[in-house]
Each structure stands twice: as structure tokens, then as C-alpha cells.
Amino acid sequence: MLLMIPISAIIAPILINFLHNVFTALWIGGMLTLAFTVLPAMRKVLGKSKETQVLNSMIKKKLSLLTYISIIGLIVTGLLMSNRSVLSGLSTGFLSFGNEYSTLMSIKHLLYFVMVFLSLFRSQGVDRIKKFTPEQKQKLNMLTLLLNILAGLAVLFLSSYVSVLAALPTP
Fold this sequence. Notes:
Layout: H1 7-46, H2 50-87, H3 100-125, H4 134-167
């Protein structure tokens, strides 16, 4: 049975969850679109030309900005959401393993940190490696992108899992 709660009492949590989902969709959706649509189409049409490298660099720069915005947005909204889960007794705290919910959230947060590292490495580090040829840098960029996609999909799975856990009736 649904409880009749005034919208004014739940609007802030709804907006926080909404923004958290938007930032997640921007980041992970951007990576999926880049890896499975943009890059393959660009290589097919332009080959390995100088124009491909320039276009790839421009796309990377623009998507990096969206990624940075998403990282900050996820931190802010995540902190607000975790505060609610601790106050409600659902969670035992940040990076704690006191119950199933907290353990899953801790794993999710650790994967998030891996995603941030991979994103920063891909956007700021790969092109600065002087020992690598352009082809090696391209392969490392793609590997980093694919690893980040896998981490992102794991984060989405864990988010779904904890969402279901949170909705279950307490014993």
C-alpha cells in the first residue's frame, strides 16, 4: 500500500536521485556511445588519418568536460543520498561493511574511485606518455575506455541491487 506523503516532503530526495541518475547516464552513456558508435564510425569513414586524430582529440576534450561535471555531480548527490541512508539506518557509513547494503555500497564507491582514476588517466595521462607511439596511445585509450565501461556497468548493477534491497520490507 502506498502512503500518501505530501510532495513537499519528498521533492528534495526525488531531485537528488534524479540528478544522480542524470550524471550517471551522462558519464556511462557517453562512454558507451563513444566506444560502440562514435569511434568505430569515425575509423570507418576517416581511417587512421590526421583528421581522425584531431577529431578524436576534440571529442575526448568535450566528453571529458561532461565527465568532470558528472564526477562532481555524483559526489555531491551521492553524499546527500548516503546521508539519508545512514540516518535511516539502512547504511552503517561510508566505506563500511556492517551489513549487506553497506558492503554493496562500499564496493560501488570503490568502483567509482576506479572509474574516476581511469577517466583522469585517459583524459590527462595517456597522451603524455612519451615512450608510446600514437598507435600504442590509441590502444591504451581504448583499453582504458573499455575497462571504465566495465566498471560503470558494475556500478549500475550494484545500484540496482541496493535499490531493490532498500525497497524490501525490514524483518
